[in-house]
């Protein structure tokens, strides 16, 4: 029993020594027997450690001014985006295509930096932008590749039965059609319950959503059978600064401007 007590006391003493050493390191105090163990040094070290433990105030610096042109794989600048979108729409395309509201001109979906193709000469490739449109008159995706150095369209690709992610303008139009359709009765009722106000337009909602792909659903109603060829969206709605409203069972066909229900 005495041997057990001695071993226990030995562990306690050793543990206390380790704790004291760790504390001394933390606050910068010298242990007895060190070279400089004066009270003045201990107080100075403790004060320095305490000061270092307090985080310094952060400084907010203004963002650097954006240049007119990016370099290499830099994101497109605002000026490059504006120039690419302006160069990508010809007079014929503007007059023949239709946007999501049926107005003249194609619906802009996105503008992004093109993936550079390796140059045979080893020189750095010129920066290009890919501008993607949807033509609701032909139900076609039109992709324009614009050379940002020359300001000219290097390539145009028109694709059918392809559905890129929706733009905010399309989501807003989809919500507008939902609100006006009899199938949107539940959406308006839930909004009224959450806010006490009537839902009159998409600007009262926070919108997100996705392209509806009918191959992911077992049973598709006949009203949505053209989705894939047509531009169809599932619009996700949320009260601004409020709850989500479940509208996942409703699908908006933007091409035919109709609403269908799943299940």
From TrEMBL:
<feature type="compositionally biased region" description="Low complexity">
    <location>
        <begin position="43"/>
        <end position="52"/>
    </location>
</feature>
<feature type="transmembrane region" description="Helical">
    <location>
        <begin position="12"/>
        <end position="31"/>
    </location>
</feature>
<feature type="region of interest" description="Disordered">
    <location>
        <begin position="34"/>
        <end position="126"/>
    </location>
</feature>
<keyword id="KW-0812">Transmembrane</keyword>
<keyword id="KW-1133">Transmembrane helix</keyword>
<keyword id="KW-0472">Membrane</keyword>
<protein>
    <submittedName>
        <fullName>Tat pathway signal sequence domain protein</fullName>
    </submittedName>
</protein>
